From TrEMBL:
One of its GO terms (molecular function) is ATP hydrolysis activity. PANTHER family: CONSERVED COMPONENT OF ABC TRANSPORTER FOR NATURAL AMINO ACIDS, CONSERVED COMPONENT OF ABC TRANSPORTER FOR NATURAL AMINO ACIDS-RELATED. CDD domains: ABC_Mj1267_LivG_branched. It holds the Pfam family ABC_tran. SMART domains: AAA (SM00382). Residues 2-250 form the ABC transporter domain. This is Amino acid/amide ABC transporter ATP-binding protein 1 (HAAT family). Keywords: ATP-binding, Nucleotide-binding, Transport. GO terms for cellular component: plasma membrane. InterPro entries: AAA+_ATPase (IPR003593), ABC_AA/LPS_Transport (IPR051120), ABC_transporter-like_ATP-bd (IPR003439), ABC_transporter-like_CS (IPR017871), BCA_ABC_TP_C (IPR032823), P-loop_NTPase (IPR027417).
Length: 263
């Protein structure tokens, strides 16, 4: 689905992404891990149109999408979440979801005057879909809660719910487990697996928790110093000495520590 070819992103003399090439297969839950400063989030930002590349190419389903802005990629089904959840604080969780679909009838002044019935019908349908999403994520009890007052883990679930309000093809999740307790992280993992298996979502996940990665992701791609270092199953990655050196700099004798290392 996504092919990244020799991608570079430079900030002055600093090469945050330095010739990265990788493939994210349709229908996969792919992990992207690596030491802090490896270039993972910068790579996400370039793929998702937040940052323009210095050079290189990004292809989605055979179409060159290099440098396209986020709103155009959104319309093509490429979505991303962020390390820190972004929500409309004073709006309810349901309203946050209802805001997502673009081109709603009530967005134009003309329709607010002459298309009131159509607006009402559309809002009823959006409300029903939002409630379905909240139920899918097992947080229907939060429907009428202000989104700014729910926990960090619940906000991550709400962000995942936003991707369900449109026809997402691939979702890039940036540290979905950051600051989330184990119970909620398991709930998020369950939702990702269900979306992958039941609705055909493709995911690419940056995450620190290796147990979470091991449960969800195959393959695992490792970045270091801006380029791809290795790709394989979680067991192959844990046994890869080059990966262990990149994380710990101590060789295979400490390879068991990789399970607790930051990604």
């Amino acid at each position: 689905m996504i092919v990244v070819e020799d991608l570079h992103k430079h900030f002055g003399g600093f090469h945050a992404v330095d010739g990265a090439s990788l493939t994210i297969e349709t229908g996969s839950i792919t992990a992207l891990i690596g030491p802090n400063g490896a270039g993972k989030t910068t790579l996400f930002n370039v793929i998702a149109g937040v940052l323009p590349p210095t050079s290189g190419r990004v292809v989605m389903d055979g179409e060159d999408i290099t440098g396209l802005p986020p709103h155009v990629l959104f319309s093509k089904g490429l979505l991303r979440t962020f390390q820190i959840a972004h929500e409309f604080h004073s709006m309810t969780c349901r309203e946050n979801l209802m805001m997502v679909p673009p081109g709603q009838t009530g967005e134009t002044l003309w329709n607010t005057w002459f298309g009131r019935k159509r607006i009402a019908d559309e809002e009823r349908a959006l409300r029903a879909k939002a409630d379905e999403v909240l139920e899918f994520l097992t947080v229907e009890h939060l429907a009428d809660h202000p989104a700014g007052q729910i926990s960090g883990g619940q906000k991550k679930l709400l962000e995942l719910g936003r991707t369900m309000m449109v026809d997402a093809k691939i979702v890039f999740l940036d540290e979905v487990g950051a600051g989330v307790n184990r119970t909620l992280l398991n709930t998020i993992g369950d939702a990702i697996i269900r979306l992958n298996r039941e609705r055909g979502y493709t995911f690419c996940v940056i995450e620190h928790d290796m147990d979470f990665i091991g449960r969800l992701c195959d393959p695992v791609i490792v970045m270091a110093e801006g380029h791809v270092l290795a790709k394989g199953t979680i067991d192959e990655i844990k046994a890869n000495e080059a990966v262990i050196e990149a994380y710990l700099g101590t060789g295979l004798k400490n390879k068991d520590k990789l399970e607790g290392a930051g990604a």
